[in-house]
Every structure is written in structure tokens, then in C-alpha cells.
Amino acid sequence: MKAPLEIAFSNVERSAAVEDNVREHASKLEELYDRITSVRVMVAEPHKSGHKGKLFHVKIEVGVPGEKLMVDRDHHDNHAHEDVFVAIRDAFRAAERQLRDYVDKLHEHGRRAG
């Protein structure tokens, strides 16, 4: 990945496997759009509740020229997110959708201008 990638953890122990997984997903974003300026990812366990399993929350900020695309959804009712890798996958899917929309708008604007 060419763009700077920051990975942070909150209430979660740092894991090389999780970091590698995030890097893999982030590099796929760059395949969609090669002008990404930065990617920041926060893996957190925000709710210390009485639930049996931990529910992970993943925030992603993708810097692109002129703006930042944000994924910040709390899936407190999605028990699939007791698996950190599922939470990461779902967050990056949302980031991909936002990035595709951004690229589509750029192309649409370019067609109107030309």
C-alpha cells in the first residue's frame, strides 16, 4: 500500500493477525482508487456489557483528494461482530461502497465538464 496506513486499538489487545488483515483490506481499497492519501483504522470494543461475547467496532477513515470518507457504525446488535475479522470485513465493505460512490461521482463530474 502506497498511502500511509494507521491502525489503532481501543480496549482490544494489539494483534499481528488483525493488523495483517487490516493491511490486506486496505490494499484492496487502493486497487479501487490509486489516489488515496491516507487510511486510518480503529479496532475497538466500545461496549463492556453483560453480553457473553465481545462485540467489535471498526472505524475507518479514508483520505481522498479534497475529503475524507468515514465508516463509523456501531453494530451492537450484530453478534457476527463478536468475531473481529467479520467486523473488519463488514467495515471495509462499507468503505469500498463509499469509495466506489466517490469514484463514480468523479467520473460523472468529468463527463459533465468535458
Low-confidence stretches: none
Helical coverage, percent range: 40-55%
Largest sheet: 4 strands, mixed
> Can you tell me the CATH superfamily?
Ribosome hibernation promotion factor-like
Strand order of the largest sheet: 1-2-3-4
What is the first-to-last residue Cα distance? 32 Å
Instruction: List the helices and strands in order.
Output: EHEEEH
- Please report the number of helical segments: 2
Instruction: Provide the CATH topology.
Output: Double Stranded RNA Binding Domain
Whole-number count of domains: 1
Mean pLDDT: 87
Per CATH, the architecture is: 2-Layer Sandwich
Task: Provide an overview of this structure.
- The chain is an alpha+beta fold and 114 residues long.
- The chain has a single domain, classed as Double Stranded RNA Binding Domain, CATH 3.30.160.100.
- The protein is 41% helix and 24% strand.
- It is built from two helices and four strands, in the order βαβββα.
- It has helices at residues 16-32, 84-113, and strands at residues 5-10, 38-44, 57-64, 67-72.
- The chain has a four-stranded mixed sheet with strand order 1-2-3-4.
- A hairpin with a 2-residue loop joins β3 (57-64) and β4.
- α1 packs parallel to α2 (84-113).
- The model has no long low-confidence stretch (mean pLDDT 87).
Features:
114 residues, alpha+beta, Double Stranded RNA Binding Domain, 41% helix, 4 strands
